Amino acid sequence: MAKWKHKKSSPKPKKLERFYKSDRWHEARRLVILRDKGLCVMCGKPGTQVHHKIHLTIQNVDDPTVATNPDNLILLCDYCHNEVHHRVGKHQSYLFTADGDLVSKK
Ligand SMILES: [Zn+2]
Ligand SMILES: [Zn+2]
């Protein structure tokens, strides 16, 4: 029998915060911004947020085919990024600053 100790309110995923501060993320992000020419792929306005199509979780953050794979990354503007996340549902309680850094909601 597997013993899972799942807490009801999950602790702040430090692992994800660390990833968003890592060089590999900043490099992947930079390449995506170059590839998408600095424009939001949904509306064509200046892009500010690099979004993971397969959402980043503590489980896949170490998987380079998800976390830093350009095929899994698209450049979005603030507006479209929020739209995408709202449409997907409240899968995470994070906000992003204008340069794509993660800010945890209080
Ligand atoms: Zn947009
Ligand atoms: Zn996103």
Structure characterization notes:
There is one protein chain. This protein has a two-stranded antiparallel ribbon with strand order 1-2. The mean pLDDT is 84. Strand 3 (94-96) and strand 4 (102-104) form a beta hairpin. The chain has one domain (14-104). The longest helix is centred in the first third of the chain and has 13 residues, at 23-35. With 106 residues, the protein is α+β, with helices and mostly antiparallel strands. The chain is built from four helices and four strands, in the order H-H-E-H-E-H-E-E. It has helices at residues 14-20, 23-35, 64-67, 78-88; strands spanning 49-52, 73-76, 94-96, 102-104. The structure holds zinc ion (ZN) (2 copies). One zinc ion binds next to helix 4.
Brief summary:
By secondary structure, this protein is α+β, with helices and mostly antiparallel strands. The protein is built from 4 helices and 4 strands, in the order ααβαβαββ. It has a two-stranded antiparallel sheet.
Looking at this protein, list some descriptive labels.
single chain, 106 residues, alpha+beta, 4 helices
SSE blueprint:
Blueprint: H1 14-20, H2 23-35, E1 49-52, H3 64-67, E2 73-76, H4 78-88, E3 94-96, E4 102-104
Q: How large a portion of the residues is in β-strands, by DSSP E?
A: 5-15%
How many DSSP H or I helices? 4
First-to-last CA distance: 36 Å
The tally of domains stands at 1
Order of helices and strands: HHEHEHEE
Computed Rg = 14 Å
In spatial order, strands of the major sheet run: 1-2
Helix content: 25-40%
Ligand set: zinc ion
Structural class assignment: alpha+beta
The number of strands is 4
Mean pLDDT: 84
Low-confidence stretches: none
Approximate shape: globular
| Largest pleated sheet | 2 strands, antiparallel
